[in-house]
Amino acid sequence: MTELTLRKIDDMHLHLRQGAMLKSVLPYSAKQCARAVIMPNTLPPVLTPKDVTRYEKEINAAGTGLEPLMTFKLVASTTPESILGLKKAGVVAGKLYPEGVTTNSEDGVSDFEAMYPVYQAMEKAGLVLCLHGEMPGAFCMDRESAFLETFKRITTDFPNLKIVLEHVTTQDAVEAVKKAGPNVGATITVHHMAITLDDVVGDKINPHNFCKPIAKRPDDRDALVAAATSGNAKFFLGTDSAPHTIESKECACGAAGVYTAPVVLPVLADIFEANQALDHLEAFTSINGATFYGLPLNEETITLHKKSWDVASSYDGVVPFMAGKTLAWQVV
Amino acid sequence: MTELTLRKIDDMHLHLRQGAMLKSVLPYSAKQCARAVIMPNTLPPVLTPKDVTRYEKEINAAGTGLEPLMTFKLVASTTPESILGLKKAGVVAGKLYPEGVTTNSEDGVSDFEAMYPVYQAMEKAGLVLCLHGEMPGAFCMDRESAFLETFKRITTDFPNLKIVLEHVTTQDAVEAVKKAGPNVGATITVHHMAITLDDVVGDKINPHNFCKPIAKRPDDRDALVAAATSGNAKFFLGTDSAPHTIESKECACGAAGVYTAPVVLPVLADIFEANQALDHLEAFTSINGATFYGLPLNEETITLHKKSWDVASSYDGVVPFMAGKTLAWQVV
C-alpha cells in the first residue's frame, strides 16, 4: 500500500503545556488530530471550573482547529460537590495521578479509596476517570503491575464509571484491561509500541526516550502492539506526547516525557503495516477512543503517502521521538 | 566507631583513560588505592606487549605512587603464542569484552569457544581471565544472567585458570560465582552496592548513574551487598570507576560509566557499617583481591574518620558518583 486515508485521529492523552511551549507544540498535534484529551498537570494544575475555562481558552486562542477535550486533576482536596461544576465547565474526564509518580504529580493522590465519593460523583456525572497506573514506591519496572490490584478494585467497585488505564506498558496491564468490564479501556502510546528499556539505557543512555511509565521488556512491547493492532475496542491511541526543552532533558536530572506529536501517524502506520494490521489503524486512532468517550466520529480525513522523510533533530528546542531517523510514511 | 584504619586498598577493576583525563583522575584513585587492575579498553586498545609498556609508563609518569596491574584486551585476533610476550611485559590479566557490550568494545569477542586456545595459554602462563559478563543482544536487564551459561562452561572447562566475573550485578551471578570452583572470583563495584535501576530512571533520568552492566533490582543490589560484606574470599572490590566528561554524559546519547574514584572508601564504609560488617571491609577492599591474584598484601594503611563532607559537583569536568551528597566517612 502506498496511500492511506483515515478519519482524522483523536489523541486521548496529550500534554500541551502552556504559554510559548503550547504555541510551539500544538500545531504538530493539530496537523494530525481532530481532538485531544488535554492533561491537567500544568503548573498550576487544572483543578477548578475557572482553571478549565482559562486553559481551554488558551488552547483555542492558538487557532489551530484542534478541539481540546478538557480534564481536571483529582487531588486529595477534590470534593464530590465540585464535580458538577467541572462537568458544566466542559470537562470530559478527571485525571488521577498517584503521588509523585510523574511530572508535576507531587500533589497526586496517595489514598485511592478515600476518593470513592469523588469517583461516585464522576460516575453520576458521566465523566471518565483517567488513571496513571503506577504505584508510588515500587521498583520502576514493577510500578505498573503493582498498581493493578488497585485498578481492579476501582473498576469492579464502579462498574458504571468509565475508566481508562492510561499509557499501559506491560503484558499484565493489557491482560487486566481485557479482563475488566465494558466500562474499562486503555490508552497506548506510540513510543511504548516502538521501544523497550533497551532504547533508554541498553546501549547509550537516551533521555529523549525516557518517560513514565518507563518502557519495559520486549514481551511487554509486543503485547501492546498486539492489543493496539487487534482492533479490540478497549484499546485506543493516547500519545502522552510530552514536550520538554532540550536543556531539561540533556542534564544530570532529566525530565520524563517523550515528544511524539510530530511523528504520531507515520510511526503508527509503520508499526501497523509491519503487523499486517493497517486495516485496524483507524479503529485504534479514530474510532475506539471516540466510541469509549461517547463522542461522534470525526468526519474529516487525513492521508498518508509512502514517501520517506527525515525527522528533524529538534522542533523549536524540543527533541522529537525518532529525531534524525528516516520514516517511511508521511502525512500529506 | 569513629575511626577506621585498614590496609590501603586494591581496586581490581579501574579505568584510567589516557592523556589529560588520566592525569586528572589518577590522583583520586591513588589517594585510596595501593594498586589497581587497569582496564585495557583505551583508544587504541592495549593489545601487545608494546601497548602494555607504553600505557604502564604513562601511568607511572604521573608519579602518584599507585602501582598499575596491567592487563591486555582479548580480541578475535589474539593468539596463544602472544600470551608469553604479554606476560613478560608484566600483565597480570587479560580482559574479555563480548562484542559491543560497553565502551570501546566494538572489537570485542563474539565466539567465546574460539578463544579456548588463548585461555589455555593464559592458564599455563598463570594469568587471570577477566570477563565482562554480558551477552550481546540480550535485553539489558537480562544480559548478565544470559551470559552465565557461557561463564559456567569456561570456568568448568578451565579449572586451573583464574577467572574473575567482573562487576557482578545480579543475584544469579553472585550464586554462580559462589557455586564455581576455587579458581573463580568476582569483583563488585561501589555503585552497584548503592543503587538500583531506580537511581538511573526511577524518578528523573540520571546519566551519571548509568553504567554497564546497568544497575538492577533491589534484590540484586541486596545480594551484592550480602556477598561483599560476608567476608567470602571470592568477592573483592573492583570499582569500575569510569570517568566521562560531563558533555559526553549529559547529552542525547550518553556514555556508560560511573566515576566513583573520589568516593570509594567513604561510600563503602557507609554500606559496611549499615550492614554491621565493618570488620569485613578490609577483606573486601585489601585482602581477597590480592590473595586471588597471588599478590602480597599492602603494608601501608589508610585511615577514615567519621566526619561528614560534601562530594563536589564535579572533579575537573567529570561528575562523580554521589555528586553534591553528604557522606559520613572521610579519608584522612
Description of the structure:
- Two copies of one chain form a homodimer.
- Chain A is an alpha/beta fold and 332 residues long.
- Chain A contains twelve helices and eleven strands.
- Chain A has an eight-stranded parallel beta sheet with strand order 2-3-4-5-6-7-8-9.
SSE inventory with pairings:
Two copies of one chain form a homodimer.
Chain A: E1 3-7, E2 9-14, H1 19-32, E3 33-38, H2 49-61, E4 67-74, H3 83-88, E5 93-96, H4 116-125, E6 128-131, H5 143-157, E7 162-165, H6 171-179, E8 184-188, H7 190-194, H8 198-201, H9 218-229, E9 235-237, H10 246-249, H11 264-274, H12 281-293, E10 301-310, E11 326-331
Parallel strand pairs in A: 2-3, 3-4, 4-5, 5-6, 6-7, 7-8, 8-9
Antiparallel strand pairs in A: 1-10, 10-11
Short description, anyone?
With about 325 residues, chain A is of the alpha/beta class.
Q: What descriptive keywords fit this protein?
A:
homodimer, globular, 35% helix, 8-stranded parallel sheet, alpha/beta, 332 residues
Strand content of chain A: 15-25%
Radius of gyration of chain A: 18 Å
Number of helices of chain A: 12
How far apart the termini of chain A lie comes to 15 Å
Shape of chain A: globular
Largest sheet of chain A: 8 strands, parallel
Order of helices and strands of chain A: EEHEHEHEHEHEHEHHHEHHHEE
Summarize model confidence as the mean pLDDT of chain A.
97
As an assembly, this protein is: homodimer
Helix percentage of chain A = 25-40%
Unreliable segments of chain A (pLDDT under 50, ≥5 consecutive)? none
- Largest interface between protein chains, with number of residues from each side: A-B, 28 and 28 residues
Class inferred from helices and paired strands of chain A: alpha/beta
Side by side, the strands of the main sheet of chain A go: 2-3-4-5-6-7-8-9
Number of strands of chain A: 11
